[in-house]
Design brief:
InterPro entries: DNA/RNA_pol_sf, Integrase_H2C2, Retrovirus_Pol_polyprotein, RT_RNaseH. The protein is α/β, with parallel strands linked by helices and about 270 residues long. The protein has 2 domains: about 110 residues, Nucleotidyltransferase, domain 5, CATH 3.30.420; about 120 residues, Endonuclease III, domain 1 (Orthogonal Bundle). It has 11 helices and 11 strands. It has a 5-stranded mixed beta sheet with strand order 3-2-1-4-5. It has a 4-stranded mixed beta sheet with strand order 6-7-8-9. The protein has a two-stranded antiparallel ribbon with strand order 10-11. A hairpin with a 3-residue loop joins strand 1 and strand 2. Helix 8 crosses helix 9 and helix 9 crosses helix 10. It starts with 11 loop residues before the first strand and ends with a strand.
């Protein structure tokens, strides 16, 4: 959450879907409170535009239900037919299942052109439209640092010498302009400072958005590879001060504490409840 919500004000959701992803933003008085984007699973990428837009609404509701169930909220979409949802005959199984998720909620769906729903539109395209700029910006900055880290890394030195003779090796490693690679990924040696710096770049940046372990791990492993990568990401995210302060608790309430039964001491060696 970017800001504390005011439950006296109306919540507004901006939703959008593209060919491979969905994006939503939660607002109050035009100010963003939270963002959410997600790449669509393969089974959902074959849905119609209408169904994808509907799915974006459902995913947003499921994510922010605790904030939306208190009063009527507004959903903004750039898909005009979705604004008439209440008057439509539900034909597909997805529609029927999705509508059960909306039961008990008071909401209004408002149509706006895509140009007036830019935030959600941009979020829905993060997965592919922003991937190329991210690669082109980050790689030139880090390649030289990776090469420099090999100098003090005995394993990297040995591997570089072997690859200079036989490349690629049996594990798929090869040498390219001084950089050890495995497939399209850059191999990082045992330089803990550099590893931390790389994880921070993918976690703390605007694109990273202080996402969780899995999201950060997926972004790092698209470009880099090293032994213990998942464990390093897990440790970094769990120690992130911003995440510890800002991320809300998503587990269900533990419930009320139950008092212990009162005991009375009758005579020596005997308890009476």
């Amino acid at each position: 959450m970017l800001a504390m919500p005011n439950f006296n004000d109306v919540f507004t959701m901006g939703t959008d879907a593209c060919a491979s992803g969905i994006g939503v933003v939660l607002l109050q008085k035009g100010q963003p409170i939270a963002f959410f984007s997600k790449e669509l699973a393969t089974m959902h990428q074959h849905l119609s535009i209408y169904e994808k837009e509907f799915l974006a609404v459902i995913m947003a509701v499921e994510r922010w239900r605790p904030y939306l169930q208190r009063q009527e909220f507004i959903t903004i979409t750039d898909h005009k037919s979705l604004s008439c949802l209440g008057d439509q005959y539900l034909q597909s199984e997805l529609q029927k299942k999705a509508m059960t998720r909306l039961m008990g909620l008071q909401f209004k769906i408002v149509y706006k052109k895509g140009l007036d729903n830019l935030v959600a539109d941009a979020l829905s395209r993060v997965g592919h439209a922003m991937a190329i700029p991210a690669v082109s910006e980050i790689l030139p900055l880090w390649i030289q640092e990776v090469i420099n880290s090999y100098v003090t890394d005995s394993e990297a030195q040995q591997l570089s010498q072997q690859l200079a003779i036989t490349s690629p090796d049996n594990s798929g490693y090869y040498l390219n302009k001084g950089v050890i690679r495995q497939g399209s990924k850059i191999w990082v040696g045992h330089n803990s400072a550099l590893r931390t710096k790389l994880i921070a770049a993918f976690h703390d940046s605007a694109l990273g958005g202080h996402s969780g372990v899995q999201g950060t791990y997926q972004r790092v492993k698209r470009m880099f590879v090293w032994e213990g990568l998942k464990q390093d990401v897990d440790s970094f995210v769990k120690q992130c001060g911003v995440c510890q302060q800002a991320k809300h608790e998503r587990s269900k309430p533990a419930g009320l504490l139950q008092p212990l039964h009162l005991l009375e001491l009758g005579r020596i060696g005997q308890w009476i409840s």
